[in-house]
Structures are given as structure tokens and as C-alpha cells.
Amino acid sequence: MCLSIPSKVVKIDKENNMATVDTMGVQRNASLDLIGEDEVQLGDYVLLHIGFIMNKIDEEDALLSLETYKEIIAAMDEEERQKAILEDDECPNRGV
Amino acid sequence: MQLELKNLYDDFRDANTMRAYAKIIHEDAKKLDQTYHIMEVCGGHTHTIMKYGILQLLPENIKFVHGPGCPVCIMPKERIDHAYVLAMQNDVILVTLGDMIKVPGSNGSLQDARSKGADVRFVYSPLDCLTIAAQNPEKKIIFFAIGFETTTPMTAALLNAVTQKNITNILFHINHVTVPEAMSALIADDTSNISAFLGPAHVSVISGSKIYEEFPRDYKKPVVVSGFEPVDVMQSISMIVKQFVEKRCELEVEYKRAVSYEGNLKAQELIDKYFQKAESFRWRGLGDIPKSGLRLRDTYDALNAEIMYKKILPTQKIDDHKLCICGDILRGKANPLECKIFGTVCKPTSPIGSCMVSSEGACAAYYKYGNLL
Ligand code: SF4
Fold it and tell me: Given CA atoms B51, B343, B288, B122 in this order, what sign does their dihedral have?
């Protein structure tokens, strides 16, 4: 009941203060009553929760997280590669 | 890179990223010479942790204790009895959210009331009450409002619509509770062994990260405000473990993409307009916690079902089943597997305690994902 769902704003109905959001292919109406005027625009990513838009998802911050994840995976892969080389060095079959 | 909606889902559930964080956590945890207990306050986190097998990814000395953050689980039976009695009135349609309908009170659950002819409905959004009210002008619609800071502003928005449109057939039974007060109560209990908190992000989306400031400052407990995707949770655990290693004690935000220090001010304004702190709220399992609940401001007495129906609402407090240890589980002192009737007498299809009824409860999570343990 408590969890909010990331969604994309596809339509804004100013008169009724409602938006239509897309949640991975499913379209739903959501109230803009908890959002300041003009704070949410078409194409924005938002958190949807029990029929309301709770707020906007900051794209830059999301991308920054994804960037960090790529880096730590790359660091892990590199470490594993180094380890594999080292282990290879101790290989008893070496030079056979 | 251009952000797409599917990035917000897939990339925050990526197994490789989780493994990478698990590795970092293991490395850091080796530098620690004691066992630490992190409490995830919210039932949503309990589910992520169980569903994605996060406990299995963690080192021996980093443990989780499950907290009280499931609004259905902490609802005391006497409040459910209120809902039941209200629902049984001929001219009432009782409306609520989610699993509330299944939780047994002392006369049975709302579902039982329904089978006896009561009109009980559960809705996706509180605003659905407006449609129900318009279609049933001869009936009183009572919205049994539940939830933490995350659902309170939506109730406030409904109140706003009701007062602005002068709708006379919607009333409110308010059971909104607040997270920080419950956390302080848990710390105040000296037998608790909580070393740090995983703060629920959506609560801070509304109330800001500021609500947790007192915990590192006054109680020396680090708090990391975390999102609900499994990668968010792993990253947050890593941030907490780093604090342990570096002997820091801070409030940090992992879920920066949607949480600010101040939170959603418009939502806070609406909450403040309609609600004030109640003297106390009796939490199932935790007992009375001062200032941990909200009530309608006196100006709105006419919309307050607890006042308008005072004569018929029961007042006695009702305790839990003797064998149920939900209380200890909600306090982070026991694990569902320690309950003697877990999975045997008490199952999701025949729940004894509330931790099993709500899909967000710890017992339900252990039951559903128990094969991972
Ligand atoms: S298994 Fe059932 S009876 Fe036991 S603590 Fe959980 S909810 Fe209570």
C-alpha cells in the first residue's frame, strides 16, 4: 500500500489539476493536488502514490547514481581480472 | 545518457550492481570488531530485503531487525473495532485502503462485516471517495484513513476537496501515525539493540530528510534515507557500514533523486491545515506512544467520525492473542521464525496477528519468501 511507483507524465489537465502518467505501459490518472503550480511538466519523471503525484524524480541525480553503479561494477571486474591473472601466476601447470 | 523510465526500474534492480555492493560491504565489514543491527523501519523495506535475498548477501556481523513501519500491522484491535461498528450502520459506506479489510478485530474483520451485509469498500485512491459520495447521496461515506506520512497528505487533499466543495456526506476516521516518534520510542527502550536505521525514502519525500536529524545528533544512531529498489537498499547498507567503519554518525540520503532536506512543502501545508498531533496513539505491539498520531483539528469536528459517532464506538483496549509475538517483532526484538505458531496455526490465509495479515508485515514476508532462508 505504501510504495510509490516511478512514472512518466504524458498529459496534464490544468483545469482539473490532474495528470495522466505512464507506468511501464499502463496509463493512469493522478492528482496534482500535492504539487506546486507548474512544478511538474510533460515528460517529467514522478513518483505516483495512491492516485497522487508525490513529487518529481530528479533526472540528473538518477543518472549520477547509474554512473556510480557502472563505475563500481567496472572496478569490481578489474579487480577480478587482476586476481585471475595473479592466480594464473601460481598455476602449477605453468611452463609445462 | 538520456534517462528512460525503464532505467528507473531495471537499473536499480541490477544483479551485478548488487553483487558489487555486497563485495564492498563485505570488505568494509571485515574492519569491524562487533556485530551491528540495522533496523529497517518500513515494511516496504522488509519486503525488498526478503524478496531479493539481501540477508544472504550480507556478512555475518551485519544483521537486520525489522521495524514497526507497516500501518496495518500497528493498528490496534480497538481501532479496527471502530471501523467494524461504523461499517455495520445501515446508512454507512466504510471506505479504506489495502489490506486493512482483512485484519481481525475483536468481532472479526471488515471482510466479516461485509459478509454480514455491511457496505465496505477498499479504494486505490482516497479521492475515489468523492465518486462514491456522489453516487450515494443518501449514505454517509466514512473514510477510515490509515498510514504514515506517506498517505497523510492524500487524506488532507480529500479533506480539502470535501470542505471546498461543501460535500456533506463524507466523514473521516483518522489513524495516521508518524515515524520519528516510533523510532524514538524504540530507542528509549534500553533493551533495544539497534545500531542504525534505514529510513524510508517515501516518508522523506513528503516530510524531508530533516525529520531524522535528532537520531544521529541526540541518540548517536546513523540514519540513511533509502529508496525501495534492491540496489538502493544495498547502497544504503554500504553507506551505513562505512559510517560504522569511519566511526561517523550522520544523517545521509541515498535516495537523492527524490528526497530533499525540506520535503514536499505543499503536502506539509495541507497536512498542517487539517491535522494536529494527537496526545498519544496506541500502537499494536508498541503500546502508547505520545504525539505519534494525528487527529483532525477541532474546526473540523463535523467531519470527524470519532466525534459524530462517539456514542456507538467501543472504548475498551484489546490486547493481542497470547502466543502472537508481533509486539516483539515490531520492536525489533524477535524474528517471525521465533513465533511458536508461525506457518502452522498462523498463515496468510488464517492470520492470528497483524504481522501476518498485511502483505507488508514481517511474518507475511517471511512466509512468502521463507524458502530463501
Ligand atoms: S506468526 Fe502470526 S501469531 Fe506469530 S507473531 Fe507472526 S502474526 Fe503473530
Answer: positive
